[in-house]
Write a structure and sequence with these properties.
Blueprint: E1 2-6, H1 9-15, E2 36-42, E3 46-60, E4 63-80, E5 83-89, E6 97-104
Parallel strand pairs: 4-6
Antiparallel strand pairs: 1-2, 2-5, 3-4
Length: 107
């Protein structure tokens, strides 16, 4: 697993473009990059159903910590690249990010 932080619309659009799953009314969720940044959690390509559960996002001292669980389910007949995006208040953008990941499931 890996992660990256994204602080502007140009970088976000170059990586993700419009969402395949849209928000209300068929429109993509909007991100106000003047107020927030994105943490992208990216799993390896998989042939299993994959779900992210965000366990916590906390700041303590001068560190931001993201903890999440990856639930792996049934086998698929195709490959996916699981990604979870977190919108975070921009005031935490300059803090070093520590990540904690655990995998739950049979695979």
């Amino acid at each position: 697993a890996r992660f990256c932080t994204i602080g502007n619309a140009e970088t976000f659009d170059s990586l993700f473009g419009a969402a395949a799953v849209m928000g209300p009314g068929g429109l993509p969720d909007s991100i106000d990059f003047s107020r927030e940044f994105i943490i992208a959690l990216i799993e390896a390509e998989s042939r299993f159903e994959t779900q992210f559960i965000i366990d916590s996002l906390t700041s303590k001292g001068a560190t931001l910590t993201a903890a999440w669980s990856v639930l792996q389910g049934d086998s698929l007949t195709f490959s996916i690249l699981p990604v979870q995006l977190l919108a975070v208040d921009r005031r935490y953008n300059d803090l070093p990010l520590v990540t904690r990941r655990r995998v739950v499931g049979p695979h």
